[in-house]
Design goal:
10 helices, Rossmann fold, NAD(P)-bd_dom_sf, NADP, eight-stranded mixed sheet, oxidoreductase activity, 8 strands, alpha/beta
């Protein structure tokens, strides 16, 4: 399963012709001002959604991204920035409150933003920075927006989706799992330790999607986790291509240098997985979107590490996360 994604039969998905009308739908995306997030907004905006919200930290960068997108699309839908710092749960709560004040529905929520291999640090609330940003901030955001998502399921022709950006990089937990006792520590500056912390956060993303689906699929909300592919301009290639990681680096470099040959080479292609997850046909068959699954591009399930399919660990993570954010729930 470690390198199973190197050989796969993928779903045919075109970022222009495969996206149906999004008329009347409200979409929110974290980190929609750059990279895959920007490309997601660019590809969805022409299909007539009611409104797209970009949830991100930097107002100037986001406003520039919005202007760029609107300049490329005739009669572009409204696109609005709402400030969000995922490393501060207070900011997450404020962001969710503003979105709820603005809208009466939320059809698609992309939990897209993330950081990788940043220097050791803690979030505003004292959690390891990669875990806190990539998982815990998104966990709280989804919890606070849940009433809006649930309400949307009661509307005519509802199709509510939550798409979580994860990564096959979760394999670099080295079988250690989540190690909850270390979540309040910044951790070592040793690069392999930083890679573990990133992998742990990506494992959490996949486990979150599994448990969210288990809780809310029956209420009409489809939640999946996706790996976008290894993009030639992305973090894996930058991380492993030029640094000395010893034996670990040899493994990582082998993956980073070869996967783009059979995978994606740019955000224009890499975005297909999360777009497919947001608009593809629901079901359990090939090419259909099934809640709780982890997908490699495009639409291939069963390619995650063994740990991301552990239902008991997903429940444990959910319970731990609930306690961590309970002071910010309304």
């Amino acid at each position: 399963m470690l390198f199973g994604f190197l050989s796969r039969s993928t779903v045919d998905f075109n970022t222009t012709t495969s996206i149906p009308s999004l008329n009347g739908k409200v979409i929110a995306i974290t980190g929609g001002n750059a990279g895959l997030g920007y490309e997601t907004v660019l590809r969805l905006a022409p299909h007539n959604p009611s409104h797209i919200y970009i949830l991100s930290r930097n107002a100037s960068t986001t406003n520039a991204a919005i202007s760029s997108i609107q300049s490329q699309i005739a009669n572009c839908c409204p696109i609005t920035h709402i400030p969000l710092d995922l490393s501060d749960l207070s900011s997450v709560a404020s962001c969710a409150a503003e979105l709820q004040n603005r809208e009466e529905r939320l059809d698609i929520l992309f939990l897209n933003a993330g950081i990788m291999l940043v220097p050791p640090a803690l979030t505003a609330q004292g959690y390891e920075i990669q875990f806190g940003t990539n998982h815990l901030g998104h966990f709280l955001l989804a919890q606070l927006l849940l009433p809006l998502l649930k309400h949307t399921t009661t509307l005519p022709d509802a199709d509510v989706r939550v798409v979580v950006l994860s990564s096959v990089g979760m394999i670099f937990t080295y079988g250690r799992g989540i190690e909850y006792e270390g979540l309040g520590e910044a951790g070592s500056a040793f690069r392999a330790a930083g890679l573990y912390r990133y992998a742990r956060s990506k494992l959490c993303n996949a486990l979150f999607a599994r448990e969210f689906a288990g809780r809310y699929s029956g209420e009409g909300i489809t939640c999946v986790a996706v790996h976008p592919g290894v993009i030639s301009t992305g973090l894996w290639r930058e991380t492993f291509g030029e640094r000395d990681w010893g034996l670990l680096g040899e493994v990582g470099r082998w993956v980073a240098m070869r996967v783009p040959v059979v995978g994606f080479e740019g955000v224009e292609s890499g975005v297909r997985g999360q777009l497919w997850a947001a608009v593809g046909k629901l079901g359990k068959g090939r090419g259909e979107v099934e809640g709780g699954e982890f997908y490699t591009p495009v639409g291939v399930k069963g390619q995650g590490s063994w740990a991301c399919y552990d239902g008991e660990e997903a429940k444990r993570l959910w319970g731990w996360s609930e306690k961590a954010v309970e002071g910010y729930m309304r």
